[in-house]
Amino acid sequence: MTIENPVSGERIVIRQSAADTNGELLLWDLFLAAGGRVPSSHAHPEQEERFTVLAGRMKFRVGWRPVTLGPGETVTVPPGAVHSFANAGNCTAHVLVETRPALDMERLLVTAAEMARETQRTARLFPTLPRPHELLLFMRDFEQEVKAPYVPAFLLRSVVRPLAGLARRAGLDGRYRRWRHADS
Fold this sequence. Notes:
The protein is an alpha+beta fold.
């Protein structure tokens, strides 16, 4: 499966899915265009990510520590660590990414790319940002896989869950539901 995110410049090729590894691993190739970057700093509460640069140069921030890597170099991001990454070179970077355990990360990547594509196509003022209620739905559906940095878990539970529930009950989840099930 190939996933393309036009906002971040990411092209993701799944090598091994959660189904292939009994949920233990999601193994994927990340091709990141020059100038490309992950949309925002984030953390994976229950997952470790290991990035091995195969070609190009990548800049990572893990916690407050900046790291720049070239071919053959690896950085490991432990569960809960806030991180971000960007292409540090002038050509497409190729990175092998291991996500353990896989959880629903593949669906998260597909949904994020669908959201980015549609938001870029239809938004007028901020063409790279989803609508607030769609972001809440995303955060609720993938709370095991990703969380906003520096936001306490109790706040996420007490605010995001109820607001996402309200958005669903109000019928504001039509576009999001299409994105969430794009590869089904």
